[in-house]
């Protein structure tokens, strides 16, 4: 009997996407809030709070993309053409954001331009990611093993709304990260941004949670049929509890780590909710994980190297955050 590697690759791919959303999510969120920084000093500190880790955070995007290509090539062949336009916009925005990150301290004559570029690039990249998420949840037009829709089919009211929702969500992560890394007046401003972002995120999560089952009867059946509703109701209930804890943590000036922790947990529950809605489909409404998977030999060959590489990524990521723990300072880093 051949061992089934699909669950292992599903876990690897799921973790890669999850870590990317959380880690690059908060530094993109800091970039979004960079648009509202009150002074050059504030922008320097915002930049320094993510400078040691932002590049490494995007490792998970590469791992997720390569994992999808290697382990689920059929899904890759359908999904990427379907969302090619927002992915192209996202990558261009990330490239421009990276350029702005590097050039703002080297091209001081045009620092204002690069500052705007960093903030706008972060916002556009986040919005594009949200559009991809919305298009994925909605599903794609497929004939056999090929995507047969148009390049702009991914642009729908739902996907545009999920794009806006992710801007609020990443802003919440970014604001909570700044609460952890800033002091005094800047921390107070971060709490104010966090309250606004939290309210926007909470409203967006609620609307997406209602909109999604209304779009798809299978998803509605999964969440609201008996006995599923008895077990799955714990997800929205835990979300409500965490939302209350998050609001209290944001408004309590004595707490600094809790807002970020609760924001991460809120994202985790949202991620879990999407997984529950779509499981076991990797191309919604068409192909399951097992149907889209590569051959067992391919999964084994690639899995051996990945299982050695993954601990290395986790170790250096954890080490980076440990080394650069503490408050951001204006005399160290990018300024």
Describe the structure.
- With 335 residues, the protein is mostly helical.
- It has one domain.
- It has 15 helices and four strands.
- It has helices spanning 6-34, 40-50, 54-57, 59-71, 73-82, 84-103, 111-138, 157-181, 184-215, 217-224, 228-232, 234-251, 258-278, 289-292, 296-323; strands at 142-143, 146-147, 281-283, 287-288.
- A two-stranded antiparallel ribbon has the order 1-2. A two-stranded antiparallel ribbon has the order 3-4.
- α1 (6-34) packs antiparallel against α2, α8 (157-181) packs antiparallel against α9 (184-215) and α12 (234-251) runs antiparallel to α13 (258-278).
- The model has no long low-confidence stretch (mean pLDDT 88).
List keywords for this structure.
335 residues, mainly alpha, two-stranded antiparallel sheet, two-stranded antiparallel ribbon, 76% helix, 3% strand
Total E-strand runs: 4
Principal-axis shape: globular
Strand content: under 5%
Average pLDDT metric: 88
Q: Given the helix and strand composition, which structural class is it?
A: mainly alpha
The helix tally amounts to: 15
- Main sheet makeup: 2 strands, antiparallel
Total tally of structural domains: 1
Q: Quote the distance from N terminus to C terminus.
A: 59 Å
Low-confidence stretches: none
Helix content: over 70%
Q: Return the string of H and E elements.
A: HHHHHHHEEHHHHHHEEHH
- Read across the widest sheet, the strand sequence of neighbours is 1-2
How would you classify the quaternary structure?
Answer: single chain
What is the gyration radius calculated from CA atoms? 20 Å
């Amino acid at each position: 009997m051949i061992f089934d590697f699909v669950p292992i690759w599903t876990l690897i791919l799921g973790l890669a996407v999850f870590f990317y959303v959380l880690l690059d999510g908060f530094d993109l969120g800091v970039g979004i809030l960079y648009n509202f920084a009150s002074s050059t000093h504030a922008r320097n500190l915002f930049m320094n709070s993510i400078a040691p880790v932002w590049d490494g955070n995007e490792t998970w995007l590469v791992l997720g993309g390569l994992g999808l290509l290697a382990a689920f090539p059929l899904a890759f062949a359908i999904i990427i053409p379907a969302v090619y336009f927002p992915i192209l916009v996202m990558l261009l925005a990330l490239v421009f954001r990276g350029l702005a990150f590097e050039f703002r301290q080297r091209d001081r004559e045009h620092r204002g331009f690069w500052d705007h570029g960093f903030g706008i690039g972060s916002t556009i990249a986040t919005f594009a990611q949200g559009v991809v998420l919305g298009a994925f949840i909605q599903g794609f037009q497929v004939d056999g093993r090929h995507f047969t829709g148009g390049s702009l089919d991914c642009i729908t009211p739902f996907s545009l709304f999920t794009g806006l929702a992710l801007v609020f969500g990443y802003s919440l992560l970014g604001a909570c990260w700044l609460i952890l890394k800033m002091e005094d007046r800047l921390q107070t401003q971060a709490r104010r941004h966090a309250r606004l972002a939290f309210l926007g995120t909470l409203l967006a999560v609620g609307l997406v949670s209602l909109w999604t089952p209304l779009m798809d009867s299978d998803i509605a059946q999964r969440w609201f049929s008996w006995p599923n509703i008895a077990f799955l109701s714990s997800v929205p209930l835990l979300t409500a509890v965490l939302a209350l804890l998050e609001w209290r943590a944001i408004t309590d000036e004595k707490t600094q780590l809790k807002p970020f922790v609760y924001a991460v947990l809120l994202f985790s529950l949202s991620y879990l909710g999407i997984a529950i809605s779509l499981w076991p489909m990797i191309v919604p409404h068409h192909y399951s994980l097992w149907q889209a998977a590569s051959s067992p030999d391919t999964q084994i060959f690639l899995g051996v190297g990945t299982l050695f590489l993954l601990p290395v990524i986790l170790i250096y990521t954890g080490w980076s955050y440990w080394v650069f723990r503490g408050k951001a300072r204006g005399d160290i880093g990018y300024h």
